[in-house]
Amino acid sequence: MKRIWSWGAIVFGGLYFLLPLIGTVEFSLRMRRGEYSLDAYRSVLADPQFRATFSYSVVMALLTIVLGVLIVVPTAYWVRLRLPRLRPVIEFITLLPLVIPAIVVVFGYIRLYNTSSILPLTGTASGTNLLLLCGYATLALPYMYRAVDTGLSTLDVRSLTEAAQSLGAGWTRIIGSLILPNVLGAVMSGAFLSFAIVIGEFTMAALLNRPAFGPYMQLLGANRAYEPAALAVIAFAATWGCMGVMQLISRLAGVRKTAK
Amino acid sequence: MMSRFGWNWLGIVPFLAFAGLFLVLPTMNIVIGAFQNPEGHFTLANLAGLASPRIVDSFAISIKVSLASALLGCLIGFAMAAAVVMGGVPDWIKAPLMTFSGVASNFAGVPLAFAFIATLGRVGLVTMLLKQWFGINIYAMGFNLLSFWGLTLTYLFFQIPLMILIITPALEGLKREWREAAEVLGASSGQYWRMVALPILFPSLLGTFALLFANSFGAVATAYALTGSSLSIVPIMLFAQIRGDVLQDPHLGYAMAFGMIVVTGLANLAYVIMRSRAERWMR
């Protein structure tokens, strides 16, 4: 009896999750009348706009990861080493992006950094790019911080630091060639999650008017029939790729730790 | 000692500067704007302005969609998690389900909308199959993807996985002894659930429900790509307001954004409180 209910829940849920995936793949192959073809993918990949926006978002995602690591790793390390009492406060701040909707944050950007403000970032394309980058780093902050902080919790930060200091290492050296390599697995998992979030992000890019992949997908969705399905398949594959690599890394890291 | 503590502060200055400039100040700016008139004086008129039928309607439908998708997400996610943790389903299902949940809970946004259009849109796969195989035309029966139920159904695609991710550890935390103790005292399986397991899980369930609620309340991209501006939920209306001042009053826009923060803030607060209650049992 119990087993029937369990299987029922799994099959029902499985169908709910599988059908949209199958539906999308099937729809993306339907472009040519009467037979399945890859025309929709061809059409998407041949679109120069696709290449431009996709590479824009990839570059933004990579820069987001770099900025995120630069902000999060030293902070999480320092808080653990010297300011443990502030940890709840810092943690609270890093969780704020999950509470404040992205649309409100970007609304604030537009109001705070408009052309008539002290810091008119939205006045130029490069300024707006920088603003979007910081916005993305904010979105990724909760995931990045949690990943790195968990990574740090497995280390004896104090002893490592004292050992390095007694060997004459400075702060940049300690963080760059001691702490960072030790939490690399955690950093990577945060990085892939950030990548998956940034690559298709819509709200911030659209409201800041940047030519990113998310707004491009939305525009294509409003104007075409079959290409959006092909895009969805590509985006889903990219997300899966990122998450798959992330899980692999965390599993490998886990194996290494238990092997020790 | 005092001076050492003073120097230690410097280490987190970059972080605080970043969070201040790109998270706290922009949000504060909107909140303050919600309480200012165009001349910059304090006023409650903007908040009072939220009572206009259009805005009240948008909050009502947003809250309805969020409640429905959170409730169904909790129920279905709980059923699936319970099935793998204790329902006698083979063990190999668990790992793929958790991996998939990790991916799908992050698969919100524009592509998700496309996936559902391709599946349940007017010429979507499921729509067509239902018509061809069973002669059921769901659109003739009044279903529309660009509606309350359509949006709820789409949101479930990231709500259910989030529920599975959060509730599975809680289910695994139910101690075997509790069930055995209940059985020794003659409790049926139903009684065990009703009188032991569910009361223990209740804070976790309620907390996750609040989190799911906030999760769908703030979602913009999925709804925008799915319905355009035909379904005026709060984030869509705010989006239109930021783009083109559709309310014809910038400060009313700030008030609306403030309203959004209040709703998601309260939901998250409920989550935090419930989680700390849940942890009492999980030691």
UniProtKB/TrEMBL annotation, chain A:
The keyword Coiled coil does not apply. CDD domains: TM_PBP2. It is found in: Cell inner membrane; Cell membrane. Pfam families: BPD_transp_1. PROSITE patterns: ABC_TM1 (PS50928). One of its GO terms (biological process) is transmembrane transport. It is a multi-pass membrane protein. Residues 54-246 form the ABC transmembrane type-1 domain. Its main location: membrane. Keywords: Cell inner membrane, Cell membrane, Membrane, Transmembrane, Transmembrane helix, Transport. GO terms for cellular component: plasma membrane. The chain crosses the membrane at residues 7-29, 54-77, 89-110, 183-208, 228-250. This is ABC transporter permease subunit. It comes from Paracoccus litorisediminis.
